[in-house]
């Protein structure tokens, strides 16, 4: 296990090591778990953007199920699994909306088709006419005009309270370290495999 004694620098180191080795198409995918509006846990993969101000940034429609769930209960978790380095990182934290300026930055960094889909579709809402939505997206893509960020598109900054790092070993004696933020500092604990 790395000798880094703070979780954010350790996360960045592990993330960079995985990115340099990975062959997966979306290396920034992370599982976001929320408490559902029906009190059942809910998990889905989202795109991790970066660490900003010691917090994990994810983006998407604020009026989607995840956005509504976070609005109701902002205690969330992120789970990273990295195949090449055989490492897992679990983050528990408090989610808050990112600023409009940051949302604009992330939205404009997206590819054109993603922007169009975000403009036309209401993520996760029921539809009886998927073909009509596809047609609307295709028509808008062919116009190839600038897309403004939809008012309900933004993101969340997840301030961690716990981060667990686990490095898998063939012996099954996995190395697990838990960082907990207490009294304004990180406390490190070694966990059993």
Specify the overall morphology. elongated
Q: Largest sheet, described in full? A: 6 strands, antiparallel, barrel
Number of helices: 5
**Total domain units:** 1
Q: What is the CATH homology-level superfamily?
A: Electron Transport, Fmn-binding Protein, Chain A
> What Rg, in angstroms, do the CA atoms define?
19 Å
For the terminal residues, how far apart are their CA atoms? Answer: 13 Å
What average pLDDT do the residues reach? 93
Q: Provide the CATH architecture.
A: Roll
CATH secondary-structure class? Mainly Beta
Strand content: 35-45%
Low-confidence stretches: none
Percent helix: 25-40%
Number of strands: 8
Q: H/E element string?
A: HEEEHEEHHHEEE
Content-based structural category = alpha+beta
Major β-sheet strand ordering = 1-2-3-6-5-4
For this structure, the CATH topology is Pnp Oxidase, Chain A
Task: Please describe what this structure looks like.
- This protein is of the alpha+beta class and 193 residues long.
- The chain has one domain: Electron Transport, Fmn-binding Protein, Chain A (Pnp Oxidase, Chain A, Roll).
- Helix content is 28%, strand content 39%.
- The protein contains 5 helices and 8 strands, in the order H-E-E-E-H-E-E-H-H-H-E-E-E.
- The chain has helices at 7-21, 65-72, 100-108, 112-120, 130-143; strands at residues 29-35, 41-52, 55-61, 75-82, 87-97, 153-167, 175-182, 185-191.
- A 6-stranded antiparallel beta barrel has the order 1-2-3-6-5-4.
- A hairpin with a 5-residue loop joins strand 1 and strand 2.
- Helix 4 crosses helix 5 (130-143).
- The longest helix has 15 residues, at 7-21.
- It is elongated, with a radius of gyration of 19 Å.
């Amino acid at each position: 296990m790395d000798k880094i004694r703070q979780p954010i620098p350790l996360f960045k180191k592990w993330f960079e090591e995985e990115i340099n080795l990975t062959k997966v198409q979306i290396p920034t995918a992370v599982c976001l778990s929320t408490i559902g509006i029906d009190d059942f846990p809910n998990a889905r993969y989202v795109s991790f953007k970066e660490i900003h101000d010691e917090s994990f940034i994810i983006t998407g429609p604020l009026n989607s199920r995840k956005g509504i769930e976070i609005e109701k209960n902002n205690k969330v978790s992120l789970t990273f699994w990295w195949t090449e380095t055989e490492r897992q990182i679990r983050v528990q934290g408090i989610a808050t909306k990112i600023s409009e300026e940051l949302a604009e930055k992330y939205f404009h960094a997206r590819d054109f088709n993603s922007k169009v889909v975000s403009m036309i579709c209401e993520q996760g809402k029921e539809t009886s006419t998927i073909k009509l939505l596809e047609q609307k997206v295709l028509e808008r893509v062919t116009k190839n005009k600038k897309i403004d960020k939809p008012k309900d598109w933004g993101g969340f900054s997840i301030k961690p309270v716990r981060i667990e790092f686990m490095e898998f070993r063939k012996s099954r004696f996995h190395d697990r370290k838990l960082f907990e933020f207490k009294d304004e500092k990180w406390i490190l604990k070694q966990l059993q495999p």
